[in-house]
Amino acid sequence: GSPDYRDAGLVFPPGFTFGSATASYQVEGAFDEDGRGPSIWDTFSKTPGKVWNGDTGDVACDHYHRVDDDLDLMRELGLGAYRFSIAWPRIMPTGTGAVNQAGIDFYSRLVDGLLERGIRPVATLYHWDLPQALEDAGGWPARATTDAFERYAEVMGAALGDRVHTWTTLNEPWCSAYLGYGQGGHAPGRHEPAAALAAVHHLNLAHGRAVQALRATSTGDPDYSVTLNFHVLRGLGDGAAEAMRRIDGLANRVFTHPMLKGEYPADVLADTASVTDWSFVRDGDLDAINQPLDVLGVNYYSTATVRLWDGVSPKQMNDGHKGAAGGTAWPGSDRVVEFVEQPGPYTEMGWNIAPEGLEELLLALTEEFPDQPLMVTENGAAFADVVAEDGSVPDPERLDYLRRHFTAAHRAMVRGADLRGYFVWSLLDNFEWGYGYAKRFGIVRVDFDTLERTVKDSGRWYSRLARTGVLPG
Ligand code: GBH
Hints:
Mean pLDDT: 93
Oligomer: single chain
Keywords: Glycosidase, Hydrolase
Protein name: Glycoside hydrolase family 1 protein
Shape: globular
Largest sheet: 8 strands, parallel, barrel
Enzyme class: hydrolase
Number of helices: 16
EC number: 3.2.1.-
Bound molecules: ligand GBH
Family: Belongs to the glycosyl hydrolase 1 family.
Distance between the termini: 20 Å
């Protein structure tokens, strides 16, 4: 059925999935237990100056040891689905070679625990914790990493493919490629524009090969997906359209076009010609990348505003502008694109709050890929919550952020977007990458001294939405 409006509020269609999401390195802890090998985030977070306050994921939310309690929490909240990621270095400590059975067992128990509680498991193979040994051998700019990923996907398909509801290959390859190898704000912290573009291609290829490997080994009937973070763009100045075209190409189309159309956009190849000749793309790669997807995962937090900035070198620009997407993150920099400060209001991340951007994005994807079902795999907000005297955690800003974004998603559905579900980022306050524990995205508060969990007001609100499918008017 199609979504409708009632006096009671906005009604989501029956079967719409209300979920919440986390990622392995951000919540698990237990970094050196049961045979887990080191990942690039262990190395990065232990490199002085890389992560706020020197925070690491060594303990994080200690989810690895508290998984049963966290499962009960999810059931109490009435979640229909849980999106988690698998730590590759728990499965294969060096990324290749022998499988570590203890790693498989952990995720197998998690999946069973979800199913017992009536919660659909949505499993992501890669949410940024690359085994360090693979980085030492070249990381994502090296083609061999795609071979290793394909093998890892086979192992996971065979292990969990009888029970997982949805497989997601990669989370936000944009971040892995550009923040990891271009701008350097994420692990492994490299600043090599050409390597970032090689990483883009190898992540695309890893995705396509993994879908095929999962299909070959999963004995259930799972859905297949990938999660991308889209840039919803605004432009400023005379060159606004050109600036937007460039970033749309480098950030959005460089992933969607190979994955969903089997080709790289010609304008992106031209824009980046001074950086790389794309000779890492081999015969047959685009066919391998171009796999039909049951759902396309969409992560959305805010919009971005860009303008052409001529006459300033990329180096200077990188020094002066710390935006995650700034400077050398954008390798086609013969005409540099600048990311501009946007009007507020903002979340604690400094990201502007723009729910209309989500509606616009879902409709734009519907227009470009008409038969492609969509899933919001992440949306949420960081705010500095305070625990009230009665022990509750009032978080009106987060609640309002979520209410407005769910409303925007509903509007997109009314206007034709085939949106199947929505995952709030995040279930728990957790290790927020370069920001450590300073930023809280959870609908459940975590006290990082006691590791105690407390459902925030937004969590209670979301619980009602998940149970009823109705967004109160
Ligand atoms: C997601 O990434 C991650 O999947 C998740 O692990 C993470 O915890 C969560 O979001 C919250 O951060 O630098 O001003 O140009 C978010 C990816 C990409 C969102 C860059 C903001 C641009 C802001 N981000 N984006 S700016």
